[in-house]
Design goal:
The protein is of the alpha+beta class. The chain is built from 5 helices and 13 strands. The protein has a 7-stranded mixed β-sheet. The chain has a 4-stranded antiparallel β-sheet with strand order 5-6-13-10. A hairpin with a 5-residue loop joins strand 7 and strand 8. The longest helix has about 30 residues.
């Protein structure tokens, strides 16, 4: 009986020592890996026929140290995909990249956005093939409905971002880190006028400057995030057309002292 008690005491002490050794180690690794990937996706809608998709991605040095080859392959693949869509990528450092993809109308916005986040999207044939798995697993799909009101255009934007399969993977497809809170994802919309949030279940942050209203949504890992919003942009083509018509009418009136179709009174 005494022997069993001694063994139990020794085992208890061993477990205590192991807990004291490994618990701080596990906590240290978790702290080091927190915030491994910062992924900001943005749409800048400057006007009716001018805008760009912007992505700003920052990898923590802890992640690139764990899997530098996979991180470089992923960043290079983002650069190649941007170039295939007439965009460009600026590599700030080995851990940071800014991708910019221009668009000239709403249809081109949705086509390029959907193709970038779903390389098998068929509406744009860029010849792009993605053989390696994504370092950050996410799927996103966008649709837009536009209504022209001569001087302004109303845009209704719907975006679904599927983060259920989110993971940080090696090129063999093995999970390096199961991110959850380790990946910080945000969608940002810049528009000339106030942005309306049509999905009341989604939370957003909004701030304005002299030229644009910036609205952001924090995306939740492990679930499907739905964004539904509307905003207005100026239609310079419509505004310019009306100005030209007014100038012609004023010129006609100055010459003939009456407007076209209206008989001159004596």
């Amino acid at each position: 009986m005494v022997s069993k008690q001694k063994k139990a005491t020794k085992n208890h002490k061993k477990r205590g020592i192991l807990n004291r050794l490994f618990l701080p180690l596990i906590l240290s690794i978790f702290v080091l890996l927190t915030g491994c990937v910062r992924y900001d996706v943005g749409v800048n809608f400057y006007e009716q026929h001018n805008g760009e998709i912007v992505q700003h991605i920052r990898l923590a040095q802890q992640l690139t140290s764990l899997s530098k080859t996979e991180a470089n392959q992923w960043l290079n693949s983002l650069e190649s995909r941007a170039k295939a869509l007439q965009g460009k990528a600026q590599k700030v450092s080995d851990e940071e990249i800014i991708v910019r993809i221009p668009f000239s109308n709403g249809q081109e916005l949705t086509d390029k956005f959907n193709h970038f986040f779903n390389p098998n999207y068929s509406k744009i044939d860029s010849g792009l093939k993605v053989e390696n798995p994504e370092l950050v697993q996410l799927k996103a799909e966008m649709s837009i409905n536009q209504n022209n009101w001569i001087f302004f255009e109303r845009n209704k934007l719907n975006i679904d971002v599927d983060l259920r399969a989110l993971g940080v993977l090696s090129n063999q497809g093995n999970v390096i880190v199961s991110p959850g809170s380790l990946v910080n994802l945000e969608f940002v919309l810049n528009a000339p006028f106030r942005v309306n949030n049509l999905d009341k279940q989604s939370t957003l942050n909004s701030e304005s400057n002299a030229n644009y209203t910036q609205t952001s949504w924090q995306l939740e890992p492990g679930q499907i995030n739905h964004i539904e919003t509307s905003f207005w942009v100026p239609s310079y083509l419509g505004i310019g057309t009306v100005i030209i018509i007014l100038v012609i009418l004023l010129g006609f009136f100055a010459k003939h002292r009456h407007f076209p179709g209206v008989q001159k009174t004596v």
